[in-house]
């Protein structure tokens, strides 16, 4: 016997279809419809609303074996074969996180194939694997941010059982797992939720209609979101979530959804007896996200920090287009490294207004902000999905890595950056509806044309080649320069973990020297100094001591270091 329930305040009648047989459902005063049916533990089911004979999937579907337009399938998480009972969890603060896309991380593009690469990640020094969205979305492949069945796991990756095997294998190796969750919008194909209830709001965002967080019947929608968030951590043993674009969550209630989710996550953490983390992607530069709830904040664990990315990338690469316009100088890089945000109540020329708020460095440690030189966005949202390795030399890549991983911020790598992968990471989709496929391709070209790119250079995301081109080429690791950069990353991560001064989380203990004209910068953390020459000409910098790690042939003396162009050295004074 299985109990079925669905919240559906809009239809006047709801019937349950189980393996092709219709059953009446009873409506409660809370607008939940319920029925108990004797069926197989893996029965296919769905709901028929009013007089429309279409069988719709369950908004809380645990499994979608035939895609997001078809019937749901029962799946019981309690019957899975977990072996991670001894996993005590770990904090993300100060950790090294590895963001990956399941479909392009390996040739097979599945959870099981990813398991074969976990020992490599352990050897690299990774602490957490962060999976780009694995929720149910239309088509066979895509980025996953157009999910429509948030409780289900994308079947081509291996479905819920495959995700269980991957998380279990990660925990067996001491790796935590974070899952990217999208709660700010639904995808354009397969979203049947509006037929059941008022899941959407009148407020739109760049990806479509917003989610109803504060309108009539919003309480059930908020519960739907929070229970989905907790499901990843409870049923799938994930150690936390990365919350996509939280600035697009329009919530004017007294208790913001993020604060509520934070409190519920902490409560689940107490029950499970292991740390659980919530990481926000936000472009607001608002420290309230990561301020403790008892100090008036939302209490999230950490936040992506694009200012750090922009400051490092522009100073090294020289790019200044679009939202990079306010960045690019060594002074900007120094300011951002020391303060977390560059825009902190300051004018943003890209936004044409003031932006951000200063971080209270006495209250919030740097480990609550995340530093990175690549993300799926910062690579994939370039017109052709080109990585920094396409435009920079290996010395410049080493400099970027040293600044991000040598900083006190929680660090993140994007798959393949550690060896300078030459493969692009392009935007790709596999919509089955011709009109949606055309609209996606044309919209992509128009978006980049507005930013000055040649529309003819923008790949068609519906062309399967965009997906195939984005798969990592693991054979590159056998090439000397790729292997050398990988070794640098591995040693850099080990330094980050083992050098006491590099584990200090407080920005008040970090200082920076730089020379704008000669384009060098020295970031000091206690006795450790990370000295970088961003320019092409040799420079002398005020850094001396024992050489811990270097790229480019630095010559360190008692009174300073000679740095060739595009080089970096990490030294420790006595």
TrEMBL record:
<comment type="similarity">
    <text>Belongs to the glycosyl hydrolase 13 family.</text>
</comment>
<comment type="pathway">
    <text>Glycan biosynthesis; trehalose biosynthesis.</text>
</comment>
<dbReference type="InterPro" id="IPR013783">
    <property type="entry name" value="Ig-like_fold"/>
</dbReference>
<keyword id="KW-0119">Carbohydrate metabolism</keyword>
<dbReference type="InterPro" id="IPR022567">
    <property type="entry name" value="DUF3459"/>
</dbReference>
<protein>
    <recommendedName>
        <fullName>Malto-oligosyltrehalose trehalohydrolase</fullName>
        <ecNumber>3.2.1.141</ecNumber>
    </recommendedName>
</protein>
<dbReference type="InterPro" id="IPR012768">
    <property type="entry name" value="Trehalose_TreZ"/>
</dbReference>
<keyword id="KW-0326">Glycosidase</keyword>
<keyword id="KW-0963">Cytoplasm</keyword>
<dbReference type="Pfam" id="PF11941">
    <property type="entry name" value="DUF3459"/>
</dbReference>
<dbReference type="InterPro" id="IPR014756">
    <property type="entry name" value="Ig_E-set"/>
</dbReference>
<dbReference type="Pfam" id="PF00128">
    <property type="entry name" value="Alpha-amylase"/>
</dbReference>
<dbReference type="InterPro" id="IPR044901">
    <property type="entry name" value="Trehalose_TreZ_E-set_sf"/>
</dbReference>
<dbReference type="InterPro" id="IPR017853">
    <property type="entry name" value="GH"/>
</dbReference>
<feature type="domain" description="Glycosyl hydrolase family 13 catalytic">
    <location>
        <begin position="99"/>
        <end position="444"/>
    </location>
</feature>
<keyword id="KW-0378">Hydrolase</keyword>
<dbReference type="InterPro" id="IPR006047">
    <property type="entry name" value="GH13_cat_dom"/>
</dbReference>
């Amino acid at each position: 016997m299985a109990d079925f329930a669905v919240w559906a305040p809009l239809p006047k009648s709801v019937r349950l279809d189980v393996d092709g047989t219709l059953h009446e459902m009873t409506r409660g005063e809370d607008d939940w419809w319920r029925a108990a049916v004797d069926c197989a533990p893996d029965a296919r089911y769905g709901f028929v609303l009013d007089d429309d004979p279409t069988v719709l999937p369950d908004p809380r579907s645990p499994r979608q074996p035939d895609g997001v337009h078809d019937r749901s399938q029962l799946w019981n998480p309690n019957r899975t074969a977990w072996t991670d009972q001894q996993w005590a969890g770990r904090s993300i603060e100060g950790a090294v996180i590895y963001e990956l896309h399941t479909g392009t991380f390996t040739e097979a593009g599945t959870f099981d194939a990813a398991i074969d690469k976990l020992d490599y990640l352990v050897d690299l020094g990774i602490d957490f694997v962060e999976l780009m969205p694995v929720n149910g979305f239309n088509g066979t492949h895509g980025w996953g941010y157009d999910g429509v069945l948030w409780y289900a796991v994308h079947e081509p990756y291996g479905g819920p059982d495959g995700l269980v095997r991957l998380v279990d294998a990660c925990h067996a190796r001491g790796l935590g797992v974070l899952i990217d969750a999208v709660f700010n919008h639904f995808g354009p194909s397969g979203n049947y939720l509006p037929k059941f209830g008022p899941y959407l709001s009148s407020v739109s965002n760049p990806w479509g209609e917003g989610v109803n967080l504060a309108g009539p019947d919003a309480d059930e929608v908020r519960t739907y979101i929070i229970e989905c968030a907790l499901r990843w951590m409870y049923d799938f043993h994930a150690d936390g979530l990365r919350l996509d674009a939280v600035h697009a969550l329009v919530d004017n209630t007294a208790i913001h959804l993020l604060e509520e989710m934070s409190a519920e996550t902490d409560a689940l953490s107490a029950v499970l007896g292991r740390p659980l983390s919530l990481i926000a992607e936000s472009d607001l530069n608002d420290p309230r996200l990561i301020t403790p709830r008892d100090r008036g904040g939302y209490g999230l664990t950490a936040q992506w920090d694009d200012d750090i990315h922009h400051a490092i990338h522009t100073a090294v690469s020289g790019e200044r287009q679009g939202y990079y316009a306010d960045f690019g100088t060594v002074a900007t890089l120094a300011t951002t490294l020391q303060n977390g945000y560059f825009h902190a109540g300051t004018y943003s020329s890209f936004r044409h207004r003031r932006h951000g708020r200063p971080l209270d460095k006495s209250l919030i440690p740097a480990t609550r902000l995340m530093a990175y030189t690549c993300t799926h966005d910062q690579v994939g949202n370039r017109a052709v999905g080109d990585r920094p390795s396409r435009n920079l030399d290996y010395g410049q890549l080493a400099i970027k890595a040293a600044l991000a991983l040598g900083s006190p911020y929680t660090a993140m790598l994007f798959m393949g950056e550690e060896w300078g992968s030459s493969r692009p990471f392009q935007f790709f989709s596999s919509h089955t509806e011709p009109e949606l496929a055309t609209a996606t391709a044309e919209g992509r070209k128009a978006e980049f044309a507005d930013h000055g790119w040649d529309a003819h250079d923008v790949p068609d995301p519906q062309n399967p080649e965009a997906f195939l081109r984005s798969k990592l080429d693991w054979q590159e690791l056998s090439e000397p320069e790729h292997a050398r950069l990988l070794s640098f990353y591995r040693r850099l991560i080990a330094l980050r973990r083992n050098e006491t001064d590099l584990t200090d989380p407080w920005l008040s203990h970090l200082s920076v020297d730089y020379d704008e004209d000669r384009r060098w910068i020295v970031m000091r953390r206690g006795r450790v100094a990370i000295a970088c020459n961003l320019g092409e000409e040799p420079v002398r910098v005020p850094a001396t001591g024992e050489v811990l790690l270097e790229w480019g042939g630095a010559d360190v003396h008692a009174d300073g270091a000679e740095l060739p162009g595009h080089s970096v050295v990490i030294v420790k004074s006595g």
